[in-house]
Write a structure and sequence with these properties.
The complex is a heterodimer of chains A (221) and B (516). Chain A has 221 residues and is mainly alpha-helical. Helices cover 66% and strands 5% of the residues of chain A. Chain A contains 11 helices and 3 strands, in the order H-H-H-E-E-H-H-E-H-H-H-H-H-H. In chain A, helix 1 runs antiparallel to helix 2 and helix 6 packs across helix 8. Chain B is of the alpha+beta class and 516 residues long. Chain B has 2 domains: 122 residues, Monooxygenase, CATH 1.20.1280; 279 residues, Cupin (Jelly Rolls), CATH 2.60.120. Chain B is built from 20 helices and 15 strands. In chain B, the strands form 4 sheets. A 7-stranded mixed beta sheet of chain B has the order 1-2-13-8-15-6-5, with no helix packed on it. In chain B, strands 7-14-9-12 form a 4-stranded antiparallel beta sheet, with no helix packed on it. In chain B, a hairpin with a 6-residue loop joins strand 10 and strand 11. In chain B, helix 7 runs parallel beside helix 8. The longest helix of chain B has 27 residues. The chains are: A mainly alpha (221), B alpha+beta (516). At the A-B interface, helix 2, helix 5, helix 8, helix 9 and helix 10 of A face helix 1, helix 4, helix 5 and helix 6 of B. Chain A: This is SKP1-like protein 1A. Chain A: InterPro entries: SKP1, SKP1-like, SKP1-like_dim_sf, SKP1/BTB/POZ_sf, Skp1_comp_dimer, Skp1_comp_POZ. Chain A: Belongs to the SKP1 family. Chain A: Keywords: Membrane, Transmembrane, Transmembrane helix, Ubl conjugation pathway.
């Protein structure tokens, strides 16, 4: 940019000198001036256009959707980094399933990789798998239902990690799905079965058990 | 070069704000019809409670309501864990492999269970007993299954049990569970049983007026859009003398009034409001009270200052405009701006209300409106806002407008102002929203916004309201809109002229800058 301005300055100087010269050559003065003055705006416009291109590039860097201006064919990729340092490249539409990431993209904080400190790479892989499927097959309700059912056939630790991740990343559908899965594990079981399912030790004394029995009419039906 | 550096600095600043914003949004959002929401990060509460333990005795802790149950099953805040000798938290051992989940997530899962399953789960372990007795869970179950036809019995759980098993003799043993530490559940109990601190009620900086003329009201308050407390304009209201519980119950009988998500009879509502000890009590807020019981509408009349009511040109198609408000102490409305850019007046017939108002361009602390104005994220209960955010305003130069509005007084809420109301005792009030010449242009602008279908309220026909209103106004008051527009233009030109003149003659404005 500075180079361009410098160029303009020197050119201006030269032109002034040329104009001075032309005063002596009055006869051909006008045509001489005319020739030189044609070059002057041309050069000015050349340098100005350089400046415009520079400003254009500057503004496109600032704008939140450079993909639209720079490249129209390939979708924008977002880089996510799990807590154990692994990076994942996902399409913007898939990443936007997470409202947390969506807000970051909208506020223009997603230009380098987004760190997700609470989520390990295993969990993040599953999350991305879920989001991808839900973006691809958006209108296929039946297909999504069966996918969700299969998707939830995971061990408990993964399920809880998924729940925490979807809570942090604010992915409502995955959160609801996970919560419903856990709730379904509770429904229909008696207390002993629930304890077995979740690895809970009964810490009531017999007297306390007697007390709480009086509060809940359904328990010993 | 300098430009690039600024860009980087800007990005860093924005990143910080985003993290804060997202954290707050997660913590405070009132979404999904859940009465409970995430709370402040545990570290903050720990710090706060530590401060209180260490701090001076005069400001020690909070004063609890006299009616507070002596225990909340013994739930203690997480900070207390550090003072316990064993540092064993029965919350974790009692949840088994669910313990890695946060309290909010556990409650979210429990919220998907019906009454029976919740009851069974409460006998599994002490920790689950505490979780399953979390009142908001039972409240949701009662409201979904019984709608408004329930008889309240001390707690929501008892209410549910008595509704489905009338023969079962309920005994609220209230088992005390030791070693249970949880910030979320403790905060929930605390907010339900807290008294309003006297220092929260101290500031009273609203302008009061008595017996002023309508012109004075318009020029001093309505035109410049400033709130005011008007005294002595309800003197001819029959309601002030007649309205008490017995009269209302006799008059209304079995009529169902709108209470939150359900409809209830007045007598049953009073039974609930006497017994309930909640963070966010159900509030009776009915927009069709005058249609349901016409005599109620006859017992009051609109104060003379607010007689111009331009939405009346729409007749029956007008959006909701008047409400009867009945609620116990602790009930109220958290921060919001009134719908459709209308102004409002609120007259207290019985009881008293604490008001806090912020001007339109000042967002109250702890409140996060979405960019399009459709959603507002804020603390769940009003007491929680007072606990966590009220003190922030003390250091501000321009303080919010506050007052306590007592029986017989009317407060004028100008359009666009943020306001929060909390009942200090059992209260009955009437409120109306209105459009006068002064805010007609604002209302028209609001109604024709592109996202009208989401932000317009009080009517089913949101998108067409603008067209209908415009037509009706032109029919009843031809030329009024153009008249107001030209007056507004004149004012703008006046303002511009003034400011130019001021800058030219004012020597502090700086030298005339030469610029291309």
């Amino acid at each position: 940019m500075l180079y361009a301005i410098f160029g303009v300055q020197t050119f201006l100087q030269r032109d002034l000198e040329l104009r001075n010269l032309s005063l002596f050559n009055r006869r051909k003065g006008f045509s001489y001036l005319f020739q030189k003055s044609l070059l002057f705006p041309f050069s000015i416009s050349f340098f100005l256009s350089q400046g415009f291109i520079y400003l254009f590039l500057l503004s496109s860097r600032k704008s939140s959707s450079p993909a639209a201006i720079m490249s129209s064919s390939s979708p924008k990729m977002i880089t996510l980094q799990s807590s154990d340092g692994e990076t994942f490249e996902v399409e913007e539409a898939v990443a936007m399933e997470s409202r947390t990431i969506k807000h970051m993209i909208e506020d223009d904080c997603a230009n380098s990789s987004i760190p997700i400190p609470n989520v390990t790479s295993n969990t993040l892989t599953k999350v991305i798998e879920y989001c991808k499927k839900h973006v691809e097959a958006k209108s296929d309700e039946e297909g999504l239902k069966s996918f969700d059912a299969e998707f939830m056939k995971i061990d408990k630790d993964t399920l809880y990690d998924l729940l925490m991740a979807s809570n942090y990343l604010d992915i409502k559908s995955l959160l609801d799905l996970g919560c419903q899965t856990v709730a379904d594990k509770i429904k229909g079981k008696n207390p002993e079965e629930i304890r077995k399912e979740f690895g809970i030790k009964n810490d009531f004394t017999p007297e306390e058990e007697e007390e709480i029995r009086k509060e809940s009419p359904w328990v010993f039906d | 070069m300098r430009g690039a550096k600024n860009l980087i600095a800007q990005t860093h600043k924005r990143k910080r704000n985003i993290k804060q914003k997202t954290a707050w949004k997660k913590q405070c959002s009132v979404s999904r019809n859940h009465i409970f929401a995430s709370r402040k990060p545990e570290a903050d509460i720990l710090h706060e409670l530590e401060k209180e333990k260490v701090g001076d005795d005069s400001a020690e802790g909070f004063s609890l309501k006299a009616s507070a149950p002596s225990n909340s099953h013994g739930v203690q805040p997480l900070g207390n864990l550090y003072f316990s000798p064993s540092s064993h938290n029965s919350r974790n051992s009692g949840l088994g492999n669910l313990q890695s989940l946060t309290d909010e997530l556990v409650l979210e899962i429990l919220g998907l269970l019906g009454g029976t399953h919740l009851g069974v789960l409460s006998t599994v372990s002490k920790s689950l007993y505490v979780f399953c007795n979390h009142e908001p869970l039972w409240r949701n179950i009662v409201l979904e299954t019984c709608k408004g036809g329930f008889l309240f019995y001390e707690t929501w759980k008892s209410t549910y049990v008595s509704a489905i098993r009338p023969s079962f003799e309920i005994l609220n043993s209230g088992l005390n569970v030791r070693d249970f530490y949880s910030d979320y559940l403790f905060q929930s109990w605390l907010c339900a049983n807290l008294e309003m601190k006297p220092e929260w009620l101290e500031r009273d900086n609203i302008v009061r007026a008595k017996g002023i003329s309508v012109e004075e009201f318009v020029s001093r308050f309505e035109e410049p859009n400033k709130p005011v407390l008007l005294e002595g304009c309800l003197e001819n209201w029959a309601a002030l003398d007649k309205w008490d519980r017995n009269y209302l119950i006799d008059l209304c009988g079995n009529v169902q009034f709108s209470v939150g998500p359900v409809e209830m009879k007045l007598e049953e509502y009073f039974r609930y409001s006497d017994l309930a000890k909640e963070e966010r009590p159900l509030y009776l807020f009915d927009p069709r009270f005058a249609r349901k019981v016409p005599n109620l509408g006859l017992d009051y009349e609109v104060p003379v200052y607010f007689s111009e009511d331009l939405f009346s040109v729409l007749g029956d198609e007008r959006p909701d405009y008047r409400w009867i408000i009945i609620g116990p102490a602790g009930s109220g409305s958290s921060f919001h701006i009134d719908p459709n850019s209308t102004s409002a007046w609120n007259a207290v017939i019985k009881g008293s209300k604490k008001w806090i108002l912020f001007p339109p361009d000042v967002v109250p602390p702890g409140v996060h409106p979405s960019p399009d104005g459709v959603e507002v994220a804020c603390p769940v209960s009003i007491i929680e806002w007072f606990m966590n955010f009220y003190n922030e305003t003390r250091s501000w130069k321009k303080k919010p407008i506050e007052c306590v509005c007592k029986a017989g007084e009317v407060i004028f809420v100008p359009n666009g102002w943020w306001h929060l109301v909390i009942n200090l005792e059992d209260s009955i009030a009437i409120t109306q929203n209105f459009v006068s010449r002064r805010n007609l242009l604002n209302v028209l602008d609001f109604l024709k916004k592109p996202n009208a279908c989401m932000i317009v309220s009080g009517t089913r026909d949101r998108v067409n309201l603008y067209e209908k209103f415009k037509k009706a106004i032109e029919a009843s008051f031809p030329g009024i809109v153009d008249d107001l527009l030209s007056k507004a233009e004149d004012k703008k030109i006046q303002k511009k002229k003034l400011s130019f003149w001021e800058s030219v003659t004012d020597s502090n404005a700086g030298a005339f800058k030469f610029s291309f």
